[in-house]
């Protein structure tokens, strides 16, 4: 059995913790592990391999976090642009044998009752082996209006799928007892799913097949941009599950959460004696039931209750609990102003390591750069800035123009605007350096890559 892990999405309702280039599934929120890592650990007990479907930026995050877990035998499919879950799952299934059973999971869900989860998966595997399309219905614990519902009959049969309801309708679903939250998890044979997709959404199937056939298939399957754009955008529910007559639902009481909002996150984090989330940086004076997140500055609260307080160094969010669904409107406002705060943290993750913005103003930017052993940045140049590099630790191999030399701790080098250059770590410990950029524009998009080990544009 293969676990297809869908890594799309930017988790806008968890901004500023979640950003486009470090979405919530890769943030280490639970015992220094990410939701993605917990997903891999949970499913690798029953699956022989992981099949990661993501964009290029998230691929490198997944690669790093899988290395931390020591997980190998992984497959990767990179989408240049998202077209929803039906194409993503179809493209992955096209890379597998017809009879390979797959468990399709989002990468950002939390499941705490793993014993019950294993029982649920074993029952689902029985049905999938019998050529059924299986979905997992979460037993609702309250009248949630933010989820779709699955109406069941005769235990495993699906009567209907329902859109997100209003509160009155959700309350009636809860009382009825045969309605379940739609978890977004599925199990089936790869070939059976593709047969049903071709039967009910032939254009998605045909364009996905064309995109897969044209894809680069070295160690990683890379779909071409124009081919991806030609695939109609649709979810697996609309494209197949709501139309097929071989769908089954497994009622699942697995202590599940999609951690889709700060209110949901608050419920999952450990609390102190006053009901506040535990945080060594939080000084609480007569404050109760608050979610306080931040590990850079001290956060002091006095006589406040039921607040969400998030500090990420470059942004602060303060909200009432119960209103956190509106956070995505903040992200919309940021996009309107061309801010990068929705896109990236002060610390950016790259396939070669990380960089942290220490200070930035008009005409200059100062960064801390850390390059992993054996990695190197792209061979590149900039049109709008000069760069000064000062090595703090490790030995950097620096190429500027036709010259390559070693730069050791407390030594520096200078790269003029327009010069071709590269930074490499040939050693066994990380290279740490301070980079001072000076120029009229210091944005991250002022990079022309001439050669890149990671095949980025």
Automatic annotation (TrEMBL):
Documented EC number(s): 2.7.7.13
Molecular function GO labels: GTP binding; isomerase activity; mannose-1-phosphate guanylyltransferase (GTP) activity
Transmembrane segments: none
Keyword terms, alphabetized: GTP-binding, Isomerase, Nucleotide-binding, Nucleotidyltransferase, Transferase
Annotated Pfam families: ManC_GMP_beta-helix, MannoseP_isomer, NTP_transferase
Stretches assigned to the Mannose-6-phosphate isomerase type II C-terminal domain: 338-452
MannoseP isomerase/GMP-like beta-helix domain ranges (all copies): 280-334
InterPro entries the UniProt entry points to: GMPP_N (IPR049577), Man1P_GuaTrfase/Man6P_Isoase (IPR006375), Man6P_isomerase-2_C (IPR001538), ManC/GMP-like_b-helix (IPR054566), Mannose-6P_isomerase_type2 (IPR051161), NTP_transferase_dom (IPR005835), Nucleotide-diphossugar_trans (IPR029044), RmlC-like_jellyroll (IPR014710)
Nucleotidyl transferase domain ranges (all copies): 3-272
Enzyme class, first EC level, given as a word: transferase
Superkingdom of source: Bacteria
Coiled coil: none
Family affiliation: Belongs to the mannose-6-phosphate isomerase type 2 family.
Stated name of the protein: mannose-1-phosphate guanylyltransferase
Upper lineage: Bacteria, Pseudomonadati, Campylobacterota, Epsilonproteobacteria, Campylobacterales
